[in-house]
Amino acid sequence: xxxxxxxxxxxxxxxxxxxxxxxxxxxxxxxxxxxxxxxxxxxxxxxxxxxxxxxxxxxxxxxxxxxxxxxxxxxxxxxxxxxxxxxxxxxxxxxxxxxxxxxxxxxxxxxxxxxxxxxxxxxxxxxxxxxx
Length: 132
Known about the structure:
The chain is α+β, with helices and mostly antiparallel strands. The chain has one domain (7-123): Ubiquitin Conjugating Enzyme (Roll). The chain is built from 3 helices and 3 strands; from the N terminus they run E-E-E-H-H-H. It has helices at residues 75-87, 102-117, 120-125, and strands at 7-13, 24-30, 41-44. Strands 1-2-3 form a 3-stranded antiparallel beta sheet. The longest helix is centred in the last third of the chain and has 16 residues, at 102-117. It is globular, with a radius of gyration of 15 Å. Residues 1-128 form the UBC core domain.
């Protein structure tokens, strides 16, 4: 975990019946000092074939553009919107253009957990994923 309570790590499991099925996708949220009055920043750390790694995503596509964000919205609702964007076809800043092929995305999904385990920061954030 980060020392700051304003930086969170999250995992999204690839939904069944998608090219991401079986994948474990690590991301980070960073709440700015204006949070909850402005939306957090979002980025993925795990290669996935949809989003650029370590690039902040455009919050407009998440329906959390700073002008439209409402303080009662939760991190959980943001992650649901992120999952919908992840599985959809819309393009926004921070996405790969063009996205990887379905075959490439399935390959990345199958390799995602091992890729994550190769990153010390992942194992610090999610110690239950350490292999004994």
